[in-house]
Amino acid sequence: MFWKERYTRIFLAEMFCIFALAAVTGLLLTGYRENRMQNLLFWHDAAIASSLLEQGIEKEAVATALLSDKSLVPGEALLYQIGMSENTDIRFVPGVYQFCAAERTRVSLCGALFFVLIFASVFRYLKKRDNLYRTAIGIVENYTENDFSVKLPELYEGTLYQLFSRINFMAAMLKTKQEAENKVKEFLKNTVSDISHQLKTPLAALSMYQEIMMQEADQTDTVIAFAQKSETALARMEGLIKTLLKITRLDAGNVSFSKKLFDASELVMQAVEELEYRAEKEKKKMILSGEKGVRVWCDLEWSREALGNVVKNALDHTEEGDLITITWEQTPLMTRFTVKDSGEGISEEDIHHIFKRFYRSKSGGNSQGIGLGLSLAGSVIEEQGGTISVQSEKGNGTVFVLSFPVCWERTV
């Protein structure tokens, strides 16, 4: 309520004090008037008594005249005779005139004092409110200019501060929205930059291959060789664009995962199906093993690609004769997939960055990858509530662990 506001409470307290002071002053003035009236009557009676005594009237007769309850008609007649009545101008009655003049002065001064006090209190209250409103206007104007460094005061009770609290909440929402929009803009900027950077190499290669084929158009073998290279470059560009689009959809929150229960072995078989020929061609051995009946709650299409990217990363960083082992197991809380290789391993300076987009080791090594596979795999797993972790030492191989949460409602 409005009386819970700090300034309003102070204002009401001041008004109460002023009116209490007015009541006390009124009582004091009333008492003072009674004393003055009593004195005035005493002086009047004393003057009459003195006049009677000077005329030789006996004291007893004077006392009887002043204190008796007899009819006042003779006295009134005398007063009328000398020109005095109830309607006589007060200026012609010196004692009463002086008394009333003093009363008017006192009442006027007290009224002026209370008016000044009330006016000062109201002015002070309105000035504080005006200062508060001006401060609020300045802060709200800062909000409109995306400056949220200063907040409206909301530490006190009252309707006004409740309004300030709601405005601060709205400002926080606007700030969050603005930060999200800035992140989206930055993300789009980085994505365009990444795409541009990654497409430069295959585009330059395609341009060079095209130029060579045009210059050697009569050399069939040369044309065929560079046509194959062009096909490889196009395939690389297509894969890059597809992967970037998938990552973009994940970052933008536009992916709706359709999760169901699948056999863990089925997920692994589909993930390595397109990589078995490459492993055989590169003379690398892949071993698949796991518990029977293990089920995984996931989106099969996206999870297959995530696991496939991890296996592909293992193929990228192993040599001829190396071993890649893929296993799966069920724990009370997670369905876990492990991809272990006996390859070159990951250095300590690189291991904390391997899930970053377009990150590639500075220490050289195999250059087949473009630094998107692990980033996509991490996003897919985490968006489904899972985790992905890595353990590795340079020269001792690498172990990736992909964990999917168990959905007990679906496994019962």
List keywords for this structure.
412 residues; alpha+beta; Helix Hairpins; Heat Shock Protein 90; 3 domains; five-stranded mixed sheet; two-stranded antiparallel ribbon; 7 strands; 63% helix; rod-shaped
**SSE run:** HHHHHHEHHEEHEEHHEEH
Rounded to the nearest angstrom, the radius of gyration is 50 Å
Overall SS class: alpha+beta
The CATH topology of the largest domain is given as Heat Shock Protein 90
Mean pLDDT: 79
Helix content: 55-70%
CATH class of the largest domain: Alpha Beta
CATH architect. name of the largest domain: 2-Layer Sandwich
Question: What order do the helices and strands come in, and which of them pair?
Answer:
Elements: H1 6-54, H2 59-67, H3 73-81, H4 94-144, H5 159-215, H6 220-252, E1 260-263, H7 264-272, H8 276-281, E2 285-290, E3 295-298, H9 300-316, E4 323-330, E5 334-341, H10 348-351, H11 373-383, E6 387-392, E7 398-405, H12 408-411
Parallel strand pairs: 2-4
Antiparallel strand pairs: 1-3, 4-5, 5-7, 6-7
Give a verbal description of the structure:
This protein is of the alpha+beta class. It folds into three domains: about 1-145, no CATH class; about 180-250, Orthogonal Bundle (Helix Hairpins); about 260-410, Heat Shock Protein 90. The protein is about 65% helix and about 10% strand. It has a five-stranded mixed sheet. The chain starts with 5 loop residues before the first helix and ends with a helix.
